[in-house]
Amino acid sequence: MRKARILPLLLLPVLTACSGTLDAGQQYEGGDANWVIWEEAERADAVSASGTTFEGEEISLEDLRGEVVVINTWYAACPPCRAEAEDLNAIAEDYADDVTVLGVNVRDNAATAQAFERSFGTPYESIDGSDGQFVADLEGTVPLQAVPTTLILDAEGRPAARYIGQIDPDIVRGMIDDAL
Question: Model confidence at 84, in pLDDT bands (50, 70, 90)?
């Protein structure tokens, strides 16, 4: 159902230096990262998931239809999650008018998650995903144990791209630009 071309490792520097757009159907697997962009015609059906933020607000992906959504799974003690926090914050701020960024904390209690968000100045909401239900509702597009994972949904709510591991912000920005 999903087609992707494997990119040689030598092309990665070329892609990160590009103007921000990537070709649909591209895929890369390397030591610490694995990413894929699904061609529009090959995208799975829209996903539906909902959860409650650590502030008690209910958020549903169905309510965000019409917007590109960037979902990032994380937890406070995760080294790559900490390392990518600044890049995700910059993405959330730079795309604030065009994209909804949503964190899904897969492990922590509210106090730990909120301390992380204060420490890193996270400008977007995070859902308490510690019961695994939110990620499970994404219908296999986000591996349960692969943290961090960043999933980009197109305006129809369909998975458009996924980045497993600490993000390369240039690649993720290209994925977002393609989804927009």
Answer: very high
H-helix or E-strand spanning residue 81: helix 79-94
Residues near 45 by Cβ (< 8 Å), separated by ≥ 6?
A: 158
Using CA atoms, how far residue 178 sits from 17, 62, 80, 108, 146, in Å, is: 16, 21, 25, 32, 24
Q: Is the peptide bond before 148 cis (omega within 30 degrees of 0)?
A: yes
pLDDT > 70: percent of the chain: 82
Q: Residues in the chain, how many?
A: 180
- Smallest CA-to-CA distance from 86 within 172, 179, 4, 176 is with 172
The crossing angle, in degrees rounded to 10, of helices 169-179 and 79-94 is 40
Instruction: Give the SS3 label for residue 150.
Output: strand
Residue where the block lists tokens 């003690």: 77
Residue whose token pair is 């390392």: 83
Nearest to 44 by CA among 127, 151, 131: 151
Q: pLDDT (tens digit, 9 = 90+) per residue, 53-77?
A: 999 999 999 999 999 999 999 999 9
- State pLDDT tens for residues 153-163: 999 999 999 99
